[in-house]
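[STRUCTURE TOKENS]
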Amino acid sequence: MREIVRNAGVYVAVVVVAFFFAIWIPQFRQPSNLLNVLDQSVEIAIVSVGMTMVILTEGIDLSVGSLAALAPFLGAWLITQHASSPFHSAVVGVLFCLAVGAFVGLINGVAITQAYLPPFIATLGTMSIVRGLAYIVSHGTGITELPRGYTFLGHTLPGQVTVGVVLMLVLYAVSHLWLSRSATGRAIYAIGGNETAAHLSGLKVNRIKLGVYILCGVLAALSGLAETAMVGASVPDAGIDLELNSIAAVVIGGTSLSGGRGNLVGTLAGALLMRLIRNGLDLAGIDSNWQKVAIGAIIMGAVAFDEFQKRRGARL
């Protein structure tokens, strides 16, 4: 609870930004647009759950964007090549997609915990490998003939809310409780706070870190399915800049890049803040390049504030 209160700034920023755009742009406050903001947040928000846990261990995963392209494409390819029943093949395709995510996450985890590669280098390598494979297996073309079950995250429920939004909220609620109250969740914080001390206290540090990277891979694949549902196709250039956007959401939400401090409530607020800003600037007709400038400035400000807090804490 203390972490959530300490990150009150990002919650206030979400309210202030939403209020500002609602006054400036009448279309922004339309219910349909606010639902659209939630839909657009699903992709970043889902992968940011895994990214938060990775960063809490003082790690990083740069492969999530590439994985969000390759995993859904392979699942879609499996469906189109072995389509017997649309429903069952869709289920198999989704499971295969998530399995690909787990496998790439496993590779990342093994490279970091067994080959002792720095997380940045290990995941930078898999980012390049996985993106290259996405273009190789797809021949640069997408798959559009997908069964309805494969794009389930885009289905609309009563109230015009999509399955993806409901899944996002449930995922955050469950993950927050698990991270804050379970022994494994506390171990993740301990590893990021002081890995040597965590190891000496008897924690299975490598096993926990391996599990975190596998989970991040699965959620990256699930995030790719969300984008597939939004565009109605699986394309090899999906997930562009997803790794940067998810890291930004996590940092803006108050999670320290040095590990050991942060929470998922802040991450969700960070993801929503980024989408609110992009949506408002889109409606205002602001050039997309200036949008990148705005997001970049926010990221730098969030990191600078984090460093300020750490230095102030060290002086006290």
In short: Residues 200 and 225 are 40 Å apart (CA to CA). The chain is about 75% helix and 0% strand. The chain has a mean pLDDT of 91.
